Amino acid sequence: MAIIVHHLENSRSQRILWMLEELGLPYEVKRYARDKKTMLAPPELKAVHPLGKSPILEHDGRIIAETATILEYLVAVSHGRLGPPEDAAGALRWRYFLDYAEGSLMPPLLLSLVIGKMGPFGWPARGFVTRFAMTHVDYVESELSQRPWFAGAEFSAADIIMSFPLEAARQRLRLDGKRPTITDWLDRIHARPAYQAALEKGGPYAYA
């Protein structure tokens, strides 16, 4: 059965399209538009998975949700490509960043987005949330200054999963010129042919 990606516009599922392009695996995209008033996913996604969230991968009768789980599934399908490095330290970093991207880095960026939409009501919390987010940004800047890619010397799925939170951080925290290592990494991933091909398949994407 062909791989189907249930893809929500301007969402984290863009990473799954990119992963598939890097691996050269054939796939079909089913696009979903956000509700123009709430900016939430449409109810049609709940017919695919009870949580109604994207990304969702459909393959061989399986419905697979959560970005890290999908990436690991695709690494297995492609016999280890873009998987962890062979050295123990690199393998641990690879596993760590797959969890860190959504578990630790994304929450303060989401808070930043919500507070930004609250207008004056969000001002009391804005400074705290920004400092909280920048602690993570500084940590990532330090990590990337030690190696060209997140897991080590080679590009991997760890870079793919880190893309969305750092793209969001670049926009929401106005990072350009302030964190040169992150900016350089973002510029390098955006220049990859597979990234560009994924943009064509996925449609408009606000963070590229």
TrEMBL record:
Entry EC no(s): 2.5.1.18
Domain of life of the source: Bacteria
Record key words, sorted: Transferase
GO CC annotations on file: cytoplasm
Gene Ontology terms for molecular function: glutathione transferase activity; peroxidase activity
Transmembrane domains' residue ranges: none
The reaction(s) this protein catalyses: RX + glutathione = an S-substituted glutathione + a halide anion + H(+)
Keyword Phosphoprotein appears in the UniProt entry: no
Domain GST N-terminal per the UniProt entry, residue ranges: 1-82
Domain GST C-terminal: 87-208
Keyword flag Transferase: yes
PROSITE patterns linked: GST_CTER, GST_NTER
Pfam families for the chain: GST_C, GST_N_2
Protein name per its UniProtKB record: glutathione transferase
